[in-house]
Amino acid sequence: DTGVSQDPRHKITKRGQNVTFRCDPISEHNRLYWYRQTLGQGPEFLTYFQNEAQLEKSRLLSDRFSAERPKGSFSTLEIQRTEQGDSAMYLCASSLDGLHNSPLHFGNGTRLTVT
Amino acid sequence: AQSVTQLDSHVSVSEGTPVLLRCNYSSSYSPSLFWYVQHPNKGLQLLLKYTSAATLVKGINGFEAEFKKSETSFHLTKPSAHMSDAAEYFCVVTRGGGSYIPTFGRGTSLIVHP
Q1: Which of A17, A67, B21, B38 can pair with B76 through a Cys bridge, CB separation 3.0 to 4.6 Å?
Q2: Residues linked to residue B36 through DSSP beta bridges, in sequence order
Q3: What backbone phi and psi angles, to 5 degrees, belong to A109?
Q4: How far is the C-alpha of A4 from the C-alpha of B69, rounded, in Å?
């Protein structure tokens, strides 16, 4: 079990630029989640995948955000035309299956700063 | 719909004294409940989970939580705080039945004084 890994750890970008983050889940995990966390708040759900299928997206996820999990393994989250309000920690988590009692395993996150 | 409320944004205790972090939930279905801990510059780590078995759940590092359906609560406790317990703690609720999304509380910051 190598854990969930996220890349990069930090990203600083200028407003209007596009950014892409990568998440590698635990290899046998079917579910993959993206969350966003701002200072003083709990993680907020963005989207999740069951294998390669994106099953649900939050209303927080504007049209500028897109996520993929092309082969049911790693996932990418892209933000187009970044805004200062996008500055946050982006967390990826995976779980073994879709059972409601399966705990999430988190990566260390990607901290995005939009200047 | 489901939601979780962490009643205290900050809890301050002295080392060696008991810890109580409060969590109330709302769920239309039988929930699963979790507590996660986040140390500074570290990823979120599972402390414990409740999944409709025993109502008193023991977790790592001496933490435990009790599920009380009548009070819709899932408070986290520890008999004696240690300096290393200083961190952010999150209560999480999910529900059974088809697709679900783990929903986080806003967190409680535990401060431990020497």
Answers
A1: B21
A2: B46, B90
A3: 90, 160
A4: 33
Q: Which string of b and e fits A63-92 if b means at least 16 CB within 10 Å?
A: eebebebeeeebbebebeebeeebbbbbbb
From chain B, pick out residues whose CB is under 8 angstroms from the CB of A42: 6, 90, 104-107
Joined together, the tokens standing for residue A65 give 């955000």
Report pLDDT for A72.
Answer: 86
Residue of B94, B104, B105 lying closest to A100 (CB–CB): B94
Which residues are B24's β-sheet partners? B5, B73
Which residues lie closer than 8 Å to A112 by C-beta, 6 or more apart? Answer: A11, A12, A13, A19, A21, A79, A82, A86, A87, A88, A89, A90
Question: Does B44 contact chain A (CB < 8 Å)?
Answer: yes
**B52-87 pLDDT, tens per residue?**
778 899 999 999 999 999 999 999 999 999 999 999
Residue B105: is it exposed, middle or buried by C-beta count within 10 angstroms (0-12/13-18/19+)?
A: buried
Tokens 């409680």 belong to B108
